[in-house]
Design goal:
alpha/beta; 7 helices; about 210 residues; globular
């Protein structure tokens, strides 16, 4: 393991999950840390990494996020560098999951990954529902789980119901969750901890189904 990865969970885990961050927050954001720890507690080894533009911000360079597709080579390089033993799931938060979704079929066909996990997929930019980022999802062959809050401004439950998505994609809906999957407890009756537990259990069950 190199300094390029932030890891949680047992080294001898039955599977590894590689996660990339979203467009605006680093790999150690509160949201990603909480999710990684929940997945690690469920028995997964979780590795997080940063794209070059985000890593550069740690040195004071205020680089804006590039176009998502230009990050595809960086994601594939991270998979190679991680060199996970056993089944590997790739994915990430928001843009990180979107980038992973664009390289997933190639890596899956090569036998390098077992599945794709997207945390708050950015189906469209906020307030721009006509600018869909779903074209490649219609033909996606990689087993995929998208964990999405029902009020996510990047794609609500009602909006996503109208999209054409591959049969390889399952969606785990988290009631009243926002883009960070957090609910308003007073509205939904659920806490952020409740949703993290549901997410971890959902990923565990999904992984068992796709690798049985």
């Amino acid at each position: 393991m190199t300094d390029n990865f932030l890891t949680d969970g047992p080294d001898d885990a039955h599977a590894t999950i590689l996660l990339a961050h979203g467009a605006g927050a680093p790999m150690d954001s509160a949201s990603m840390t909480a999710t990684a720890r929940a997945l690690a507690a469920a028995g997964f080894r979780v590795a997080r990494f940063e794209f070059g533009y985000m890593a550069a911000r740690r040195d004071g360079a205020r680089k804006p996020p590039p176009r998502a597709e230009t990050l595809n080579p960086e994601y594939k390089a991270a998979v190679t560098e991680l060199s996970a033993a056993g089944p590997l799931i790739i994915g990430g938060k928001s843009m990180g999951g979107r980038v992973a979704s664009m390289v997933a079929d190639e890596l899956c066909a090569e036998g390098r990954i077992a599945g794709l996990l997207c945390l708050g997929y950015p189906f469209h930019p906020p307030a721009k529902p006509e600018q869909l980022r779903t074209k490649h999802l219609a033909d996606l062959r990689t087993p995929t789980l998208i964990c999405q809050g029902t009020r996510d401004e990047f794609g609500t439950r009602d909006e996503v119901a109208g999209y054409t998505l591959s049969d390889s994609i399952e969606i785990l809906w988290l009631e009243d969750g926002d883009h960070d999957l957090k609910p308003r407890k007073a509205v939904s009756g659920f806490s952020a901890a409740d949703h993290l537990k549901t997410l971890a259990e959902g990923v565990t069950g999904w992984f068992a189904r796709i690798t049985h």
